[in-house]
Amino acid sequence: MQPNQIDLERIQQAAHLMARLWSDEPSKHDQHACNKWRAADPDNEKAWQCLIQAQAHFGDAPKETIQIIARSRKMSRRHVLSLMGLSAGGLFFAGGYIHNWSISSHASYYKNLATATGEVRSFPLSDINKLVMNTKTTLAMPTEHQFKLDDGEFFLDVSQATPYQIETMDGTISFHQGKLNIRRTDDITRVSVFSGQNVQLIGKQMHNPLSIKPGESISFNTLNTSRISNTDPNTIGWVTGKLVAQRMPLTDFIHELSRYRKGIVRVAPELRQLAVTGVFSIDNTDQILQQLQASLPINIYQLTPYWVNVTAS
Amino acid sequence: MNRDLQLQFTQLYEMHQGWLSNFLRKRLNCSHKAADLMQDTYLKVLVSGKIPPTEYARQYLTCIAKGLVVDQYRRWRIEQAYLESISHLPEEHHSSPEKRLEVIETLIEIDTLLHQVSEKARQAFLLRRLEGLSYSDIAVQLNVSISSVEKYIAKALQACAIAMMERHK
To answer: Domain RNA polymerase sigma-70 region spans what residues (chain B) (predicted)?
Structure first.
């Protein structure tokens, strides 16, 4: 059959008849009208067959097709954000991976906190203030209003205004209310403000404090600061157990990934030119590596689970 | 291929592959994929057997390449949405990579067929076709009248057939 020889008007007629027959209670008259139309002209029958042929693949469709297609249509930067519950400016603390620990129901501070590789933990600080710690993080609370971050990353969601002071090896950050992410890795402290009030910070060797507004981020060490940039909501995907990348160079992505994985992941520097975009679950880094291998021209060699090499294929 | 066509094709390749490669690399942000799509673009020209006149060559190649980029993008979105949908499942429910690829191909096929259809018509059609819902159930779910559901179904059926025909052109 040459489908392109069928004219569109016949297709339209066939579609109307088929939609009628699919309805809840097609009458005898409908059935009869359809049969009559199909028999009236071989081209009518061709159009009818064309409709049937177009549906050949629907039988193999997986159960969740409707949801998957609907989701794919919305897949854009905005969607990536809404997946994480960030589009409305609010975070939801849900998802199978986040453990909600309540050591004591009214705990307002914890002396020493630590998370293991790949672990994300949430702690209530009061009825409504929350602390979430990312992988490989060591954090101490000398007092109720003080944090000392040795290494790693944590997120604060403070609805009830509380004067918090956060210290890292690089300096001190003062924060009252809102949503704030602090990360100290690779010998630098990064502060990202998502909402709430302005945040003050000062490096140990700086003379004047600096203020940053909600929606802004900055990196600093004892002496210097980076330029202020816009806060990227993707960077706190981890709060909901996701690693979110938007056109991230593969080498950077692997660097991020390796924070959630024991052992070493080596990546060939020339793979920097490959870009990764997607939302990945950080509780299964093996699966992420497989997904990368399936979608990029790379080979992933696992010498042992603790030693992975990523090279160009 | 006759020699004349072969010569024209070679010329088309030599004159345009430079900017086309840049164009694709910029859009895809990946030189490997760009190289693939460039081959596909020229392959499409070759299969069609029509070499565009010189003054339209650039426009013609851009049009084909853009279409391929859009396909690629659509493919990527479907893949991501699918992977996302199975990422919540425990590992023992994950299917083999071959099976996954098959499922993704089916999803892409369905998505392509319904590409031109409105959101509501697409939903109505899939609810009827895949979930076997009655028109009255669909009407409730989409908050429209039953006669609208029938119209949506007809539109979607028509669009599927047309999309299939266009592919076979």
So the answer is: 12-75
In a domain, B101, yes or no: no
B158 contacts on A by Cβ (under 8 Å): 11-12, 15
- The answer to whether A273 faces chain B, any CB pair under 8 Å, is yes
pLDDT by residue (tens digit) across A88-140?
222 222 222 223 333 333 344 567 888 888 999 888 887 778 899 999 999 98
Domains and CATH numbers, chain A: 3-55 (no CATH), 62-88 (no CATH), 99-234 (2.60.120.1440), 241-312 (3.55.50.30)
Q: Chain B closest CA to A20's CA: distance in Å? A: 7
Q: For residues B65-86, b (16+ Cβ closer than 10 Å) or e, as one string?
A: beebbeebebbbbbbbbbbbbb
**B150 touching A (Cβ < 8 Å):** yes
- The answer, yes or no, to whether residue A60 has pLDDT greater than 80, is yes
> Residue B75: inside a domain, yes or no?
yes
Return the amino acid letter for A284. Answer: N
* pLDDT, tens only, B73-125: 778 788 888 887 887 777 666 677 778 888 888 898 898 888 888 889 999 99
Give the range of the structural domain holding residue B132, as residue numbers without chain letter: 114-169
Boundary residue ending a domain (B65, B95, B125): B95
* DSSP states of A49-77: HHHHHHTTTGGG--TTHHHHHHHHHH-SH
A126 in Cβ contact with A112 (< 8 Å): no
